[in-house]
């Protein structure tokens, strides 16, 4: 029986988008960077960029949120082929989780081996300050607790096994490199390793929710990232992820503070150059971590399947 092709997530359905992208790029990407709110500036670090608007890619979702421009950019960083999503998709926009994560499967089909995923997140840990970077060491998938999952439905064996582990999802070697790079860039005191939690959104947390997250040892909270990571792990990609702390979550019942998207984007804008330097150096150091570039093949097949 063919996997349920709900929301176009099966190999057959994704081949149209994959073939279209293959026709636009000269060789296989090894790294996919997914840019969080306002973090599309990371794409500006790519050499010889080729820009493909999401709207031109068959069956590709569209971004609807400020700070997500809706372009796929192919280029190189330190000689490594990189695909960068300037704009990601969120469950609260109305996209299904299959749709949100379909770019990860397309990246796998294109030859990507490493997902670098970024987001803007609220600081739950009271030690975190606006502008800090949190390397994600683990996550809590609240949507998954209720069974809301991108891989719900028949499993597509073309991509991965029905049941799969997600402990050690966030590559420890790359995190170690990132910590060293953070120190070399002078952001060591503002660099943490912590637990990211995803909620559905689009509202920010109530004070009681922030207090509950703290009891669960959550360090940062957002409305994205984990579905993409789960699909990446399912199909065998390495993952490195970080959050930019863009606001301090409000746990005081009488606080006048009201988290908002403008402050989120402003916090990202204030760290633009440092974030670009950070990501470039992580990729430079990870050079050994992915295969060398190779010319793009015309047929669409999974690299780990004969
Ligand atoms: O997770 P990213 O895409 O960075 O965006 C974060 O910022 C927005 C809220 O300000 C939400 O979309 C939340 O998920
Ligand atoms: N859920 C959530 N997502 C965010 N994205 C940026 N800041 C926040 C926040 O405080 N809460």
Which key features would you list for this structure?
single chain; 306 residues; Rossmann fold; five-stranded mixed β-barrel; 9 strands; globular; binds 1-O-phosphono-alpha-D-ribofuranose; binds guanine; glycosyltransferase; Nucleoside_phosphorylase_sf
Description:
This protein is α/β, with parallel strands linked by helices. The protein has a five-stranded mixed barrel with strand order 5-8-7-6-9. The mean pLDDT is 92. The chain has helices at 11-22, 97-110, 142-145, 172-184, 207-215, 226-234, 261-269, 272-285, and strands at residues 31-34, 47-53, 71-77, 80-86, 114-123, 133-141, 191-198, 220-222, 238-248. Helices cover 27% and strands 22% of the residues. It has a single domain, classed as 3-Layer(aba) Sandwich (Rossmann fold), CATH 3.40.50. It is globular and about 60 Å long. The protein binds 1-O-phosphono-alpha-D-ribofuranose and guanine. Guanine is lined by residues 120-122, 199, 201, 204-205, 221-223, 246-247, 249, 259, 264. A purine D-ribonucleoside binds at residues 205, 247. Its EC number is 2.4.2.1. InterPro entries: Nucleoside_phosphorylase_d, Nucleoside_phosphorylase_sf, Pur_Nuc_Pase_Ino/Guo-sp, Purine_phosphorylase.
């Amino acid at each position: 029986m063919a996997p349920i092709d709900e929301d176009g997530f099966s190999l057959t359905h994704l081949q149209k988008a994959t073939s279209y992208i293959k026709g636009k790029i000269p060789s296989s990407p090894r790294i996919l960077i997914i840019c969080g709110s306002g973090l599309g500036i990371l794409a500006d670090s790519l050499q010889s960029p080729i820009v493909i608007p999401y709207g031109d890619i068959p069956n590709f979702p569209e971004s609807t949120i400020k700070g997500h421009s809706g372009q796929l950019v192919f280029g190189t960083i330190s000689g490594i082929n990189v695909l960068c999503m300037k704009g990601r998709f969120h469950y609260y926009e109305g996209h299904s989780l299959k749709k949100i994560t379909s770019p990860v499967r397309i990246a796998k089909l294109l030859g990507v081996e490493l997902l670098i995923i970024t987001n803007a997140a609220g600081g739950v840990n009271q030690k975190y300050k606006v502008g800090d970077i949190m390397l994600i060491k683990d996550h809590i998938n609240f949507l998954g607790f209720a069974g809301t999952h991108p891989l719900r439905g028949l499993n597509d064996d073309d991509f991965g096994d029905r049941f799969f582990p997600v402990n050690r999802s966030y590559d420890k070697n790359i995190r170690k490199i990132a910590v060293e790079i953070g120190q070399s860039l002078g952001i060591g005191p503002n660099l943490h390793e912590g637990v990211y939690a995803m909620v559905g959104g689009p509202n920010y947390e109530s004070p009681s929710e922030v207090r509950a997250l703290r009891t669960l040892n959550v360090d940062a909270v957002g409305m994205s990232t984990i579905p993409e990571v789960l699909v990446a792990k399912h199909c065998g990609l390495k993952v490195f992820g970080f959050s930019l702390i863009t606001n301090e979550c409000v746990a005081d019942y009488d606080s006048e503070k009201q988290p908002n998207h403008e402050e989120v984007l402003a916090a990202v804008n204030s760290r633009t150059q440092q974030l670009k330097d950070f990501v470039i150096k992580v990729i430079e150091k990870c050079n050994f971590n992915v295969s060398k570039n190779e010319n793009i093949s015309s047929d669409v097949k999974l690299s780990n399947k004969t």
